[in-house]
Each structure stands twice: as C-alpha cells, then as structure tokens.
C-alpha cells in the first residue's frame, strides 16, 4: 500500500512544474498546458484526501474539476486561435495592442 505522503509529494511536484511553466513561458499553448498541470495536481490532492478519509466527496469534486478543466480548454483554445489569427503566432508578448 502506498502512503498518502507520496501522493501529496507528487501533487506538489506537478503543481510546481505548472507554476514554473506559467511563469517562464511566452507561448499561449504552454500557458494552457501549465494550468492543466495545476488542475491535475489539485485533483491528485482531492482524490488522495478522499481515500484517506474514506468518503467519496473528494472524488466528486475531482470530477467537477475535470469538467471545469474541459470548459477551460475549450475557451482557451478559442482565445489561442484568435491570438494566432490576429498576431500570426501564439506568443503572448506580441498581443500588447489588445490592451485598453
């Protein structure tokens, strides 16, 4: 049986990789992938705590988080397509003309 601390360490590592990707990349697709990593880290925590406490509430919230991630990807891909169409690339530093 795997101890619960291993799941928490895995979740923290995945979350830190997502934060690192979010802070250091300029590509909008990599932004989207980094946010997905962070959401998956939250799901790992929810399921691990649900298993530890012996109820299914964390697993239920994990399913809601997956639905949220699917909606976020749909909106994010739409934004990335508009970014690519208007600025001929997915570099977020080129889109400064979209500001007020």
UniProtKB/TrEMBL annotation:
The chain crosses the membrane at residues 6-23, 30-54, 60-84. Its EC number is 1.6.5.11. InterPro entries: NADH_UbQ_OxRdtase_chain4L/K (IPR001133), NUOK/Mnh_C1-like (IPR039428). One of its GO terms (biological process) is ATP synthesis coupled electron transport. The keyword Iron-sulfur does not apply. It is a multi-pass membrane protein. Its main location: membrane. It is an enzyme of class 1 (oxidoreductase). One of its GO terms (molecular function) is oxidoreductase activity, acting on NAD(P)H. It is found in: Membrane. Keywords: Membrane, Oxidoreductase, Transmembrane, Transmembrane helix, Transport. It holds the Pfam family Oxidored_q2. GO terms for cellular component: NADH dehydrogenase complex. Belongs to the complex I subunit 4L family. PANTHER family: NADH-UBIQUINONE OXIDOREDUCTASE CHAIN 4L (PTHR11434:SF16), NADH-UBIQUINONE OXIDOREDUCTASE SUBUNIT ND4L (PTHR11434). This is NADH dehydrogenase subunit K. It comes from Haloferax larsenii. The lineage of its organism: Archaea, Methanobacteriati, Methanobacteriota, Stenosarchaea group, Halobacteria.
């Amino acid at each position: 049986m795997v101890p619960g601390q291993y799941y928490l360490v895995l979740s923290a590592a995945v979350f830190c990789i997502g934060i690192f990707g979010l802070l250091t990349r300029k590509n909008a697709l990599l932004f989207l992938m980094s946010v997905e990593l962070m959401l998956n880290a939250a799901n790992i925590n929810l399921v691990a705590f649900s298993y530890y406490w012996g109820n299914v509430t964390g697993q239920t919230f994990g399913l809601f988080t997956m639905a949220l991630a699917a909606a976020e990807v749909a909106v994010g891909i739409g934004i990335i397509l508009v970014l690519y169409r208007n600025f001929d690339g997915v570099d977020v530093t080129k889109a400064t003309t979209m500001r007020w």
